[in-house]
Amino acid sequence: MSDAVLERLQNVYGAAADPSRAAPMRAYMKDKFPFLGISSPARRALDREVLRGAPKPDEAGLADIVLACWALPEREYQYFACDHLRRHAGLLSPAALPVLRELVTTKSWWDTVDALAAHVAGPMVAAHPALLSTMDEWTAPGTDLWLVRTAILHQLRYREKTDRDRLFDYCARWAGERDFFIRKGIGWALREYAKTDPDAVRAFVATHPALSGLSAREALKNVGPAAGSPAPR
After folding, report:
1. 180-231 pLDDT, tens per residue?
2. pLDDT tens digits, residue range 139-183?
């Protein structure tokens, strides 16, 4: 069935390709990937056509489809893979971790990494807490920066279930990193948690001067600094 879904996917997407849209989409993504030129709303409608009548995949079949999509050149196929994984995240056991790692570290950019972090890694870790040790490993010094971003963002949708100490530890470990996507990811993760515990985020920012201005501004964007603390630079 994986082969059948993949063949149908290529046929349906290929017929909907729009070269006039593909060029600006590619430019928006810094010319990193070719595009077919299918907008997100149109693509998701096409996905329903592709999957109509297809049985629910098992974990192995799911891995086959997403890895095959990752091997195709146009970016829309990777978006299909991310959405397909999100729909079936409940199927994923710790055995799927090497697949997730491959997706995060190949054809890497924020558009797929962020979806994988929040909607795949996050549910996997919530369902299998033993994977927390992997998130810890992914934030160790010298790790691929996209794995670091994934670990920092994996609790993005946890809200009150967020492991605050772990989130703050990851952000503190990488506070001095100059990479834009790490600095932005730290700020985003803290800003989301500030919706649950604004005082804790204010206090964390106030006591961690190594945080970049970008991270601090993003973290406090909706809640402001702690009383008596200066606004982020």
Report:
1. 999 999 999 999 999 999 999 999 999 999 999 999 999 999 999 977 677 7
2. 999 999 999 999 999 999 999 999 999 999 999 999 999 999 999
Multiple choice CATH, 96-233, 1.25.10.90, 1.10.3660.10, 3.90.76.10, 3.40.50.2300: 1.25.10.90
Domain spanning 1-91: which CATH class is it, in words? mainly alpha
Domain coordinates of the chain in residue numbers?
1-91, 96-233
DSSP string computed for the chain: -HHHHHHHHHHHHHHH--HHHHHHHHHHTTT-S------HHHHHHHHHHHHTTPPPP-HHHHHHHHHHHHHSSSHHHHHHHHHHHHHTGGG--GGGHHHHHHHHHSS--HHHHHHHIIIIIHHHHHH-GGGHHHHHHHTSTT--HHHHHHHHHTTTTTGGG--HHHHHHHHHHTTT---HHHHHHHHHHHHHHHTT-HHHHHHHHHT-TTS-HHHHHHHTTTT-PPTTPPPP-
26, 8 contact by CB (below 8 A): no
Does 1-91 match 96-233 in CATH topology? yes
Residue in the block written with tokens 């091997």: 71
Q: pTM of the prediction?
A: 0.95
What crossing angle do the helices spanning 59-71 and 2-16 adopt, rounded to 10°?
40
